[in-house]
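stuck on this:

***
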Amino acid sequence: MRRERQSSDSEWSAAEEGEATPLIGNDDDGSVAGKWYTGPLFVTGVKLAVLFVVFTSIVVGTFYWGIPTLDPEDRAVLKLPRSFEDLQNLK
């Protein structure tokens, strides 16, 4: 009878442990683990940040080196239209 009770207690504690898993894990001695930055959410966030920086730099580099340079004599002609008449004069 004692064995049956111990197995049911261990099953009960395993079920409780799975239901109430803390966000910050515990070490073997029961203290709160201090390495929060090894969690899967943090690692995924770092990977996404690295991907964002890499692809943003690729896009910026493509525009920086891909757009042709403007000649100094064309700078006077180049302007944004400020009225509908300016827009019609662009043709």
